[in-house]
Amino acid sequence: MIVRMVAALAIALVLLTSEMSGQNSTGSPSDASSEPAINTWSFSASASTYFVPHSHVYASPVFTADHGWLHLEARYNYEALKTGSTWIGYNFKHGEKWVLEVSPMVAGVFGDLDGIAPGWNLSLSHGKFELSSQNEFVFDLRDRSGNFFYSWAEFSYSPLDWFRFGIVSQRTKAYQTDLDIQRGLLAGFSYKKVNLTTYVFNFGWTDPTVVVTIGVDF
After folding, report:
1. What phi-psi label fits residue 204: left (phi over 0), alpha (psi between -120 and 50 degrees) or beta?
2. Quick one: which of 77, 155, 187, 193 is 20 to 30 A from 24 by CA?
3. For residue 102, what are the CA distances in angstroms to 53, 87, 118, 131, 160?
4. Full DSSP string of 105-166
């Protein structure tokens, strides 16, 4: 079941990408200048390195592709170590001053953990303030006791276009700490389409976990 779901998502991505390439290669330059681009894609790629105390260091890459309402995403070492997930979802956006963006999704999870995961990405921004979260409920197909809810949430303020800071919380089973819900601080910097963010979890409660994320939009 998981294999069929993953294969279907992969085929959909290939077909949609091929369609985009075909549309971009047809037509004359005058056609391109006279008509607005309707079928546009946006992509992002990021890699988060986790420095977990008394444990090993590991990286979690994430890739996203958006095309109008369509949202595609691939993750590794996210739900669990040595585990990947492929996502498909629907993009909603509403508002001008208060901007709400929501993407309900569903994923196939495979690797050391096999399962199905409904979830969502959400962000609410107003001026220099932004609240964002990623949430999912993983249904373990091997063992029901492995079912769990994952959450990552941030609240940040951007005094400058290239700098933001704020607070962050996380609930995960990819690694274990003394706290079920981890919380901490974040500081992020950006330059053009590249951004770098450092998170420090659990400082003052237990040995801190540090996460360094570098991402690029294209």
Report:
1. left
2. 193
3. 34, 14, 14, 12, 25
4. EEEEEEESS-EEEEEEEEEEEETTEEEEEEEEEEEESS-GGG-EEEEEEEEEEEEETTEEEE
Query: Could you give the CA distance from residue 51 to residue 33 in angstroms, rounded to a whole number?
Result: 49
Rounded Cα gap, residues 38 and 26, in angstroms: 14
Listing DSSP states for 170-204 in one string gives EE-SSS--S-SSEEEEEEEEEETTEEEEEEEESTT
Q: What is the CA radius of gyration of the chain?
A: 19
Q: Which DSSP letter does residue 69 get?
A: T
Q: Is the pLDDT of residue 8 over 80?
A: no
Contacts of residue 208, defined as CB under 8 A and 6 or more positions apart, other chains included, come to: 53, 184, 200, 201, 202
> On the CB side of 214, how many CA atoms lie within 13 Å of its CA?
4
Q: What is the pLDDT of residues 67-82, one digit of tens each?
A: 999 999 999 999 999 9
Instruction: For 179-194, write each residue's pLDDT tens digit.
Output: 889 999 999 999 999 9
- pLDDT score recorded for residue 58: 97
Q: Cα(168)–Cα(133) distance, rounded to whole angstroms? A: 10
| Cβ atoms of 118 and 136 closer than 8 Å | yes
Cβ density class 157-196: b for 16+ within 10 Å, e for less: ebeeeeebebebebebebbebeeeebebebebebeeeebe
> What is the Cα–Cα distance from 83 to 173, expressed in whole angstroms?
12
DSSP code, position 16:
H
CATH of domain 2-217: 2.40.160.40
